[in-house]
Every structure is written in C-alpha cells, then in structure tokens.
Amino acid sequence: MEEIAFTIQSDGKPVGIAEFGKYFYWLRACYVLALDEYHFSIEDDESDEIAVREMTKEELAESIIERAKYMSYDELKSVANRTLSPEEDLMLVDIYRRNPFETVLCGIGIALTAALIVSGGKFEFKVTGIKIEIPPIAEGIFKLRKALGRKQ
Questions:
Q1: Would 99 be classed as within a structural domain?
Q2: Is residue 152 part of a domain?
Q3: Splitting the chain (152 residues) into consecutive groups of 10 residues, what average pLDDT does each group show?
Q4: Between vectors from CA 98 to CA 112 and to CA 90, what angle results, nearest 5°?
Q5: What is the rounded (10 degree) CA torsion for 112, 133, 56, 140?
Q6: If you write DSSP's letter for every residue of 62-101 in order, what string do you get?
Q7: pLDDT tens by residue, 47-88
Q8: Among residues 19, 22, 28, 39, which is most buried (max CB within 10 A)?
Q9: 52 lies in a domain?
Q10: Is residue 62 domain-resident?
Q11: Domain count, the chain
C-alpha cells in the first residue's frame, strides 16, 4: 500500500456531497479496473512484496478506458462496489479543504496513479517529490464518466 497525495482544484464554492461522492465512486471504479488489469502475485510468504508485470501508468490508464468501452453500466457498478481485501482497497487517509482540496489516498500505487490519470490528473516531478493536480470535481467526474463510456 502506498500513500499518494494530490490536489483537487476548486473554485472555493461549496461542493455538493453527491458530486463529491460521485467523483470518488468513479475513481474507485477506475482503480478496481486497474487492479484487474495488473496481475498481482505474492513473491514471498515472509515479505509483503508484490511482483507485477511491467506496465507504465499511462498504459494502465489506456487499458482501463479500453476495457470500460465494452462494459455495461451494471458491470461498472459491480466493479465500483466490489469488495477488496484491506491490502488492496482504496482508502482515504487525509483530506483538507483550504481551497483547493488537499487529499491523500492509500492503495496500490500504480493502480491509483492510473485512476488519477483517467480523472484528468496532471503530474509534475519536482525535487521534493511528485505534485499531482486534479481538475475541479465536476470536471473530474466528467472525465471519469467519459473514460468509462458513460453518458454525461
């Protein structure tokens, strides 16, 4: 499990709970699809290291979009609501609303990164680490739904 911090841009206005929930609902659907696309296996019973096949986060994001094209709405709902093990599940670690939202999620790093790319995330590599910016929630929902083949 890896913690990933990112910023969700905001106009400073209140954000509806339904809209906020939809963003994380569709983000989780992308995350679960990414987990499905990435093949995990435990390397060693004594260590918690995970071996994965080589795939970039961009390739993984593209495969999420490609797979979602052929899924019905009910299949996507099932994916978004799938029960995952505590070792794989996407968890909210911290969230701050100082305009914009500063958010920290915990999950399988490559799958979470791919889901953030699908939601319109922009990555900037700095000396202090990676800076990830997500568009405002309404735009993020639009991008996630579009990527998942859903009508707007």
A1: yes
A2: no
A3: 89 86 92 81 50 71 87 91 93 89 90 90 79 89 86 64
A4: 20
A5: 60
A6: HHHHHHHTT--HHHHHHHHT----TTTS-EEEEEEESSSE
A7: 555 554 567 788 888 888 888 888 888 999 999 999 999 999
A8: 28
A9: yes
A10: yes
A11: 1
